[in-house]
Amino acid sequence: MKALIIEDEKPSARRLSRLLETRNIEVCQMLHSVAESIAWFNANTPPDLIFLDIQLSDGLSFEIFDQVAVRSPIIFTTAYDEYALQAFKLNSIDYLLKPIDEEELEAALTKYRTLGVNNAEVRIDFEDIRKLLVNPVEREYKNRFTARVGQHIKIIPTDEVECFYSENKGTYAATIEGRSYLLDTTLEQLEEELSPQQFFRVSRKFYVQVNHIADIIAYSNSRLKVKLNRFNEQEIIVSRERVKDFKLWLE
Question: What is the rounded average pLDDT of the residues 62-66?
């Protein structure tokens, strides 16, 4: 199998390439922009499978398909974890949230192989996905959580949560009071419950709220350190793979 990676973050592209090569999948090329991808498709045989990022350095990757006809099956790689995921699912083999988890990658490849080469071609309505990215479907997000404190139940308004974090297999809400409360949920479940306008998952361990960020500091290995108004129990580091999307989210 030959795979093509279209991803503008070169460290992410190289990591995905290594993961694929350990699974005996040949990466025929790594492309990093719309213009570069259009030129490549015009000069090369289409691959068996495409891993496609949504946001490239010079525009949305959908612009590639305005210029060239591509019929290879696609697995989206995206940081738009709250936008149009159902559209990604319906219009592709699968989608993978960045940074890519090895088990999720394996599941997507298994799904591709199960569909078979003849059935893997998916009619992709890029315009439909583009519209959803620009105007995401309105949905309800949680505006409060509850936590048990002794014999009492504490009501925690979402606006008062500085961050959500995981520790020792538990998920906690750190509030503007300077306290942390154990919740009966996981960070993965929170993906469906938190407004992406307010919260961003900076790493596998932390969600932070934009209204409670006190400072953002350059950190080692092209990462960022986030300081909140009250929470100081642990360092909050934006993983290198999420730095670009974090900066876009701040805007």
Answer: 83
